């Protein structure tokens, strides 16, 4: 089996699901509202009456956000069984009686299943971890209904992406103790860098504002970033060319300025495309 084929195998991937299961215990209404605000900004309003497909649902937080924004149905998918179970628990607790379903599947399973098109296809920070980002984008985009939206986020390409590929592959296969040491070193270096760039309170201010970002948690995100294997990245210009060739037009984008080096990570650019 080739290395490329191995990257499509669930067993070669980082255990994102265990991280999401741990995160679920921290979720409060504050996190939910932050997720709702983030999705509303990307969608350009509410999702009243729309069918939503969440590819790579993770914790289920944004599937719940879609329901809070009025989606008439949410279909949530993840290839990781722990993520599926976590999403099911979250939605059962906070959206019982609403129209949603959760199942274990990868984006590539959708090539065979050929489900009905969706008004919104949502995949935040997922498709660059599939092992074949461009194929995943093509598959997800094909499920967007006429006048529908494809909302997604992908890692921005940086000069140090080659280094992060090496680090992520190592981290995904490392033991818990080695992973803990890597996380500790990353946080210490980030603290020093922010203090040098923003002053003595740089790291404290950064942490204080962190919870407002999509309802996420810093320490779970560090684990996710360091272990996110497989890993691919793409520039906004490359994204535009690829999506245009698929017959989609850009509606809005939230791209990260700077970050060309990628010393502490590449970060995600957010995109919204619609079928022409």
Q: Would you kindly provide a written description of the structure presented here, covering whatever features stand out?
A:
The chain folds into 2 domains: 3-157 and 232-275, Rossmann fold (3-Layer(aba) Sandwich); 161-227, no CATH class. 47% of the residues lie in helices and 18% in strands. It is built from 12 helices and 7 strands. A 7-stranded mixed beta sheet has the order 3-2-1-4-5-7-6, sandwiched between helices.
CATH homologous superfamily identity of the largest domain = Vaccinia Virus protein VP39
Please name the CATH topology of the largest domain. Answer: Rossmann fold
Query: Which word captures the global form?
Result: globular
Average pLDDT taken over every residue: 93
Q: What percentage of the residues does DSSP assign to strands (E)?
A: 15-25%
CATH architecture of the largest domain: 3-Layer(aba) Sandwich
Query: What would you call the structural class?
Result: alpha/beta
Distance between the termini: 39 Å
Helix content: 40-55%
Q: CATH first level of the largest domain: which class? A: Alpha Beta
Sheet bearing the most strands, described? 7 strands, mixed
Low-pLDDT windows of residues: none
